[in-house]
Amino acid sequence: MERPRWLDEREQSAWRGYRRMRRLLDLELARELMRDAGLSEPDYDVLSDLSETPDQRLRLSELADRMLWSRSRLSHHLTRMQQRGLVTREECATDGRGAVVALTAEGRRAVEAAAPGHVAAVRRHLIDLLTPDEVAALDALTHRVVDHLARPGE
Amino acid sequence: MERPRWLDEREQSAWRGYRRMRRLLDLELARELMRDAGLSEPDYDVLSDLSETPDQRLRLSELADRMLWSRSRLSHHLTRMQQRGLVTREECATDGRGAVVALTAEGRRAVEAAAPGHVAAVRRHLIDLLTPDEVAALDALTHRVVDHLARPGE
DNA sequence: GAGGGATAGATGACATGTCAATCAGATGGC
DNA sequence: GCCATCTGATTGACATGTCATCTATCCCTC
What we know:
The structure is a homodimer. Chain A is mainly alpha-helical. The first copy, chain A, is 66% helix and 8% strand.
């Protein structure tokens, strides 16, 4: 930090590219998802995580951890989704403080309707634009960074 | 979309990795930037774009386009940054409707103080974790996706 | 089995982002 | 030159996310 090692041209370009892609991809996927399925990305993520779970239900904290969301954010978001009938809250049998989110039939219908189009969009705007080697590189590199960031001591 | 082509294992893993990295990297960079320089990432981006510009000033719409922000978002954000003394608004000489944002001395000081640490964080949490080949792949792939998404007809 | 922390979740105040409406000034056709 | 339209920017209402705080319950130790 004393003598900053600036990014060289290639690194700079990769970093800018990453941030631009991040933004554009996000906008486009969110736009299509909302247009075609009436869901925001956070909505979709919640529903999709729930639907992949054996019993279609999860403890709030478990879901929050999986999604890397704060409890507070999840709680607020679920209240909104609950009002729209996509999920319900249930008491937790094993922990008096706890709560469980469950997918409603309507929620299930919503993800199932949304999923094919969303996956297609992910393909169209990202995956299918990459060579197999690039997919492999992206896979390797992102997981390395995730592991690094998830390390306790930063 | 009729017969959805789901993602294969590797693609799925890359996609999840990307989204997880996106989230964790963002959180960490934002956290450090706020802690060390008292700036949010949007703040930093605005200041950094302005500081790289010849005259330290830009038309609002020009800046909004570069950052891929809506005019409205930029306008709101600049009001806040202006209140903190980081930028000022000026009238535009050539277009009576237009406005120009300019970096203040304090704004300049803020980016210059923030930049080395921020770049170091980008290195530490991303760039330096990648092999040269991976940096090259990331560069190539992100720009391809960006070009694709920037294409007028979607 | 009674405290004293820790943890799960909810909540309210606030910061930030979005969307639609508005206003002033530019621009083009006639 | 004048009107219709477009564009740059601002604004206000609202949606979303964050942070600090609160309550209830759990869990550990004594």
